[in-house]
Design brief:
The complex is a heterotrimer of chains A (487), B (348) and C (323). Chain A is built from 11 helices and 19 strands. Chain A has 487 residues and is of the alpha+beta class. Chain A has 4 domains: 90 residues, OB fold (Dihydrolipoamide Acetyltransferase, E2P) (Beta Barrel); 54 residues, E3-binding domain (Dihydrolipoamide Transferase, Irregular); 71 residues, no CATH class; 216 residues, Chloramphenicol Acetyltransferase. Chain B is built from 12 helices and 14 strands. In chain B, helix 8 packs across helix 12. The chains are: A alpha+beta (487), B alpha/beta (348), C alpha/beta (323).
């Protein structure tokens, strides 16, 4: 066990990650953890992954709650050995460099509730409530049980509240009056829809992000809504109820199966947002140009049949061949096997090929690492595994972040030819169409061959035309004469 | 009876209203504010499918009169005679976005629907790890005094108080009835709201505006230092009457109306007993495993050293409710029985 | 082909997952890793999947005590389910529900119900909410042949007709109400005919035939969504295990289960059909089988490693929203 205090901080998984949202803690304060034990699940724009312990020790503090978003490097918790004092732990926490502000509280499923159902006090928004906090032991102050419990939740000392009940007994109403008077917000008490239209600033009203967005969309002030969501927040159902009152609800409040003649809109998901912004940036920044070539696949198809007849366990596909051919071509023409961040070009020795896979509501690019060193069988089974897990949303970040080259294949939809958009910071992307029987001219005579169209989109800042053309020529060679890949 | 059982200040404009009207106000105003509130039960409107008048009843005690004409049969639903289906529908709907107010015409009918109440609605939140909430109200009419016989006169609040997951509310006057009904509809948990049948016409001053009385806060209709009398529902009437008689003799009684049995404001009772040292609990329920024993037990356990005399409970006997008037009158606790109990603990 | 390949793959995967989950539960129960009572639904997979495959998370199902299959078919997380059944604090219900109360409201699964006949009134409620709020969602209750004779079930059917609720009543008739023949407990000759008597369309299908069951339920679901009210669908099926795991099943004929596994296995019947029609390849399904075995294996391992609830915090929580 280490003698020092170790932070549990938000890791950076991949170049684009800037923040993560806490999902579930696997440990609680007091637990002993060893190196690599699971600590907490964190969700990024792409996936959910688990932060593991970098050290062993006892969990002394958990600072990031489920639903909170923290920047990378932010302090999520503290590990230390048992002999470190609480004061030292607190000192460590307060002096930890803070880029760890909880940004947005997402609508989290109801997690570890405290034993008596207390709702989280809205500390950050209560300004002068601190004035009501201090004082001597208030356990003898006459108060109704509900007022006493709520005082605990607000962090208020009952000695500071004027009780209007008999013998000066503090009632819930007295407590709420005092809280409101000192500028605080009441915890989840407005369980009815206010009858008067409210137009004040509702930015301080606690609401789930979904509710807030919906309210904005429908033009509803959150002060007009009932508060029945978890942790004292306005939830989507509350906004919908108020909207229905004002007849502003669309006739179908949930997104049901499409009905003839109607349309529906939804806010885009995190993944779609990411895809949208990255591809827009790519198109706008990298000067794309395209080089097109056709390749005849008949030799390749025969070779494939040869392989598959013998290797009945794993069937190799045309796409596996294309991956292998690209990898081999990239080794021959390394100037295409690059990444560019705007200032520096990075050359790669091996070809890490990203392969575009369509998933529910989006796409992701799992990587076949060092494809140039792998046989077709390995490529085939790896591709199958990555593709399956991609669709189940179970890829690790290093499995889809990175890559030096990308292949996108729309051949299965019958697309003859298309142009793809480069995935930054890669330098190029290959768009593959369907292999189809076409009329070709050989030695002046018409004949039939299975032909495939390949289009390379390259970033002209770092890949010149001649280089791209050379790559395509080499690639065509490998595809038309697969045996040359063995050399 | 024109008093309300509260020393709280009634603000704003008020009118004299009957218990049933106060409930009607509360429900109607909540239905206006919140489109997810619905009412369902037998004859909650009445006349469904018949040739005569629509809204023939508005509830057999008139509590839901006028709601169907305003809100329609989609929100005020007359059901077949199927208590289990009624309560079950309310519980299922509560878990799916509505705030139903289901009625058991007589709370004795809890028998045929009990599984949906105690096994389903009460337990959902716990069994499902806190993920679901069941914001429903079950209204039931309770109590003896109408010669309605054994199967229409039970009070049964002890049975439902015993069950974790349920809240039990028993207002003793129109002012409390309105405020507690509002709170019940807005509450996120299943609430059993018990209305005593002899109180529906009792009037007192009720504010016109909508207000919510929190659960777990008792009211103190009479205050004093010689003896604590805890009473619930219609028994509050008798406790107040007894206190007024005793006041003329120079004995001051601290009358406590818990208003909600679950959650219970036990602190108010304990604080009072600390001063008076003497406790009488008046409850229309039967004596075994009842509310009276429960409160007596709490005080015996937590307030033992404040007591200067044994606790006395005034309850119905261990029998079903009889039909004949003399028998029913002997069954129900009354002012004389309360007076006798008080004199007993005072040693007089 | 009348069914999309993607649909068939999802159907197969779902049924196979249920089969593997249940048979693994049996093993783990026998090994002492699962407390309490478990009622396995192996043999009845086709009905669960046929009913749920087209439903969204906002459509609601209510289940019986034999609810694992319904849960999986509705899309509940298998890992969370295994942890729940093992009573771990990271289970779907924080370990407080267990096998008989397994639920996930977020996925539209209103919960397994340990009370026979407890579900239909609640599912009526979900249907009532859908109707009142105009969401076009539907609600579906799974009912055993035994629950058909419970008063609450019959009340719910009548009320569903009276209020024209979008509630599809699915009766899984596996021939046994606990240890008593279904036919013994049913006074009339046909449950379907009796259900029709309540005033709703009622159909009888072979629950071992995924496609026949799916087609019938699809019609009923659309009827409900279109405002046409409730339907009853009785599906004949077989349960391969006892009423509960550990049931000696003395009431069943000799070799009855063994024969049923040969000739009345809905998964085998599905496979044979899709291969014969050329809709799916055996190899594809075999690959899926392997994946699922690995997935369930992982779920069991994760479940056994998952933390147990802590009485000092978990016992008293979640009784009320506030008290």
């Amino acid at each position: 066990m280490t003698n020092k205090i170790k932070p549990i901080s938000m890791p950076k998984w991949g170049m684009e990650m800037s923040e993560g949202e806490i999902n579930t803690w696997h440990v609680k304060v007091g637990d002993q953890v060893n190196i690599e034990d699971d600590l907490v699940d964190v969700e990024t724009a792409k996936i959910v992954n688990t932060v593991t312990a970098a050290d062993s020790g006892i969990v002394r503090a958990i600072l990031a709650q489920p639903g909170e978003t923290h920047n990378i490097g932010g302090l999520l918790g503290v590990l230390a050995s048992a002999d470190i004092s609480e004061d030292d732990i607190q000192a460590f926490i307060s002096s930890y460099p803070s880029n760890s502000e909880a940004v947005v509280i997402e609508e989290a499923p109801i997690m570890s509730e405290v034993a008596n159902e207390s709702v989280a006090p809205a500390e950050k928004q209560l300004s002068n409530l601190d004035l009501l906090a201090g004082g001597a032991d208030d356990s003898h102050v006459p108060a109704s049980p509900v007022a006493r419990r709520l005082a605990g939740e607000y962090g208020v000392n009952l000695n500071n509240i004027i009780g209007t009940g008999r013998h000066g007994r503090v009632s819930k109403g007295d407590l709420e009056a005092a809280v409101t008077a000192s500028g605080g917000l009441l915890i989840g008490t407005n369980n009815s829809i206010p009858s008067k239209t409210q137009s004040g600033d509702d930015s301080q009203v606690k609401a789930t992000p979904v509710a807030r967005r919906l309210a904005e969309q429908l033009g509803i002030n959150l002060l007009e809504c009932r508060v029945s969501g978890n942790r004292g927040r306005v939830c989507k159902a509350d906004v919908e109820a108020t909207a229905a009152m004002k007849n502003r609800l669309p006739t179908q409040s949930t997104v049901a199966a499409p009905v003839h003649g109607s349309s529906e809109s939804q806010t885009i998901s995190g993944m779609r947002k990411t895809i949208a912004s990255r591809l827009q940036a790519s198109k706008q920044t990298a000067p794309h140009y395209r080089v097109h070539i056709d390749a005849e696949l008949d030799n390749l198809l025969a070779t494939r049949k040869q392989i598959n007849d013998v290797n009945t366990a794993t069937k190799v596909s045309v796409n596996d061949f294309i991956i292998k051919a690209c990898a081999s071509a990239l080794v021959r023409v390394p100037a295409v096997n690059v990444q560019f961040d705007g200032e520096q070009i990075t050359y790669f020795e091996d070809a890490d090929i990203s392969v575009a896979v369509a998933i529910k509501d989006g796409l992701i690019t799992p990587i076949i690492a060092e494809a140039n060193k792998k046989g077709l069988e390995s490529i085939s089974s790896e591709m199958r595994d990555l593709s399956t897990r991609a669709k189940l949303n179970r890829l690790n970040p290093e499995e889809f972040q990175g890559g030096s080259f990308c292949i996108s294949n729309l051949g299965m939809y019958g697309i003859k030819q298309f142009d793809a958009i480069i995935n930054p910071p890669q330098g190029a992307i290959l768009a593959v169409g369907a292999g189809e029987q076409r009329a070709v001219v050989k030695n002046g005579a018409l004949s039939v061959a299975t032909v495939i169209s390949l289009t390379l989109s390259s970033d002209h800042r770092i890949i010149d035309g001649a280089v791209a053309a050379q790559f395509m020529s080499v690639l065509k060679g490998f595809l038309e004469q697969p045996a040359t890949m063995l050399v | 009876m024109t008093t309300n059982s509260n020393d709280a200040k009634i603000g704003g404009k008020t009118s004299i209203k009957a218990y049933r009207e106060a409930l009607n106000d509360a429900i109607r105003e909540e239905m206006r504010r919140d489109p997810t509130v619905i009412v369902l039960g037998e004859e909650v409107s009445g006349g469904a499918g018949c040739d005569g008048q629509d809204d023939a009843y508005g509830g057999v005690f008139g509590v839901t009169k006028g709601l169907m004409p305003e809100f329609g049969r989609e929100r005020v639903i007359d059901t077949p005679i199927s208590e289990a289906a009624i309560i079950g529908a309310a519980a299922g709907a509560a878990n799916n976005g509505l705030r139903p107010i289901a009625e058991l015409m007589f709370f004795d009918f809890i028998g045929v629907s009990f599984d949906q109440i105690f096994n389903q609605a009460a337990k959902f939140r716990y069994m499902f790890g806190g993920k679901s909430k069941t914001p429903m109200v079950i209204r039931g009419t309770v109590g003896a005094g109408w010669r309605a016989g054994a199967q229409h006169s039970s009070i049964l609040h002890s049975v439902v108080t015993h069950i974790p997951g349920l809240k039990v509310v028993m207002p003793s006057n129109a002012y409390d009835a309105k405020g507690l009904m509002v709170q019940a509809i807005r509450d996120e948990d299943p609430v059993i709201f018990l209305e005593h049948k002899v109180m529906y016409n009792n009037e007192c001053e009720v504010p016109d505006e909508q207000y919510a009385i929190p659960f777990g806060e008792a009211a103190f209709p009479r205050q004093g230092k010689d003896v604590t009398i805890v009473a619930i529902s219609n028994m509050v009437t008798h406790a107040i009457a007894a206190a007024d008689i005793l006041a003329k003799e120079g004995i001051t009684c601290d009358v406590i109306d818990p208003r909600t049995v679950s959650p219970l404001d036990d602190e108010a009772i304990l604080e009072s007993v600390e001063v008076t040292g003497r406790l009488v609990v008046v409850d229309e329920g039967n004596p075994r495993c009842g509310l009276a024993s429960d409160i007596a037990g709490i005080v015996a356990e937590k307030g033992f050293f404040s007591l200067r005399a044994p606790i006395r409970t005034v309850t119905a006997p261990h029998t079903p409710v009889p039909f004949a008037p003399e028998l029913e009158d002997a069954y129900v606790p009354n002012v004389d029985k309360v007076l006798a109990a008080v004199r007993d603990v005072l040693g007089a | 082909m009348p069914y999309q390949e993607d649909f068939l793959l999802r159907a197969y995967r779902s049924m196979r997952t249920i089969r593997e989950f249940e048979e693994r539960c049996i093993k783990e129960f026998m090994g002492g890793n699962i407390p309490g009572f478990v009622h396995a639904s192996n043999g009845q997979e086709a009905i669960a999947v046929a009913a749920c495959i087209d439903l969204s998370d906002s459509d609601i199902i209510g289940s019986t005590h034999r609810g694992h299959g319904h849960c999986i078919a509705k899309g509940c997380d298998v890992g969370g389910m295994m942890k729940e059944v093992m009573g771990r604090s990271t289970g779907l219900c924080k370990g407080k529900g267990g096998s008989m109360h397994i639920a996930d409201i977020d996925k539209g699964m209103l919960g397994a119900n340990a009370i026979v006949g407890g579900g239909p009134p609640l599912v009526n409620g979900a249907a009532l909410a859908a109707k009142t709020l105009g969401t076009k969602n539907v609600a579906l209750s799974f009912n055993g042949d035994g629950s058909a004779n419970q008063g609450t079930t019959m009340e719910a059917m009548n009320m569903a007709v009276v209020l024209q609720l979008p509630h599809i009543f699915i009766y899984e008739n596996n021939g046994y109400a606990e240890g008593t023949a279904a036919n013994y407990g049913l006074g009339c000759d046909s449950l379907t005919d009796r259900n029709a008597g309540f005033g709703m369309p009622a159909e009888y299908v072979d629950g071992n035939d995924f496609f026949a069951t799916y087609d019938a339920i699809k019609v009923a679901t659309q009827r409900a969504r279109d405002g046409g009210g409730p339907t009853s669908i009785e599906a004949k099926c077989v349960r391969f295990d006892g009423h509960f795991i550990g049931d000696p099943q003395l009431y069943r004929g000799e070799d009855e289960v063994k024969n049923a596994r040969k000739t009345e296995d809905c998964l085998k019947i599905f496979r044979a059909r899709v291969i014969k029609e050329g809709w799916l390849k055996a190899a594809t399904m075999n690959a899926i089988d392997k994946e699922i075995v690995a997935e369930i294996e992982k779920a069991v391992a994760d479940g056994l490693a998952a933390p147990r609830p802590d009485p000092s915090t978990d016992l008293l929580s979640d009784v009320y929203s506030s008290y």
